[in-house]
Each structure stands twice: as structure tokens, then as C-alpha cells.
Design goal:
The protein has helices at about 1-45, 55-70, 80-100. The protein is mostly helical and about 100 residues long. It is elongated.
Length: about 100
């Protein structure tokens, strides 16, 4: 029983470690997004202010960053790992009950 608890604690630790790593990665991407886009805005406004082309990379990269943030911070319930694991367990239990029903 103690071994099972240690394995569960280890699994919880690994999940928490992955979550922290994902959040850290998101903030790294966010900082990069802000810095690169600041440079693009400067270049655009200095050399070609008549056409605001910096909006296109800012918008497209921003959409990707937004999706990444939604996933990392579990803003949409069906995209997070807990939902995934619950559904897998639910389907396994459903299959077991079907098998028991026919035996």
C-alpha cells in the first residue's frame, strides 16, 4: 500500500512539475512576443508608416499565443488533462460494466 502511495505522490509531483514548466514556457513566449513586436512596430513606423504591416505578424502570433495560454491555464475545461483523464476512466468503467453485464 505504501508503494502505491509513493507512486501516486511521484505521479502528482511529475504532473505539477509539467504544469510549472508549461506556465514558465508560456511566459517566455509572452516576453518574446512583446519584445519582437515592439521591434517590428518601431521598424514599421520608422521606415513605412503609411502601411501598418506590423499588425499582421502581431495578430497571427497573438492568436497562437492566446490558444497556448488557454491550454496552459486550463481556461477551457475540455482541453485540460484532468478532463482527459476523467473521460478515459469513464470509458474504461463503461467497458468493464458492459463486459460484466454479458458474463
Amino acid at each position: 500500500m505504501e508503494l502505491i502511495m509513493e507512486n501516486q505522490e511521484y505521479e502528482n509531483y511529475k504532473k505539477a512539475q509539467k504544469k510549472v514548466s508549461d506556465i514558465k514556457g508560456f511566459y517566455g513566449h509572452l516576453i518574446t512576443y512583446v519584445l519582437v513586436n515592439a521591434v517590428l512596430i518601431f521598424i514599421n513606423l520608422k521606415y513605412t508608416p503609411q502601411y501598418l504591416w506590423f499588425l499582421w505578424p502581431m495578430l497571427s502570433w497573438g492568436v497562437g499565443l492566446l490558444i497556448n495560454g488557454i491550454i496552459v491555464f486550463d481556461a477551457i475545461p475540455f482541453l485540460n488533462k484532468n478532463w482527459e483523464e476523467r473521460k478515459i476512466k469513464e470509458f474504461i468503467e463503461e467497458e468493464k460494466s458492459k463486459q460484466n453485464k454479458y458474463e
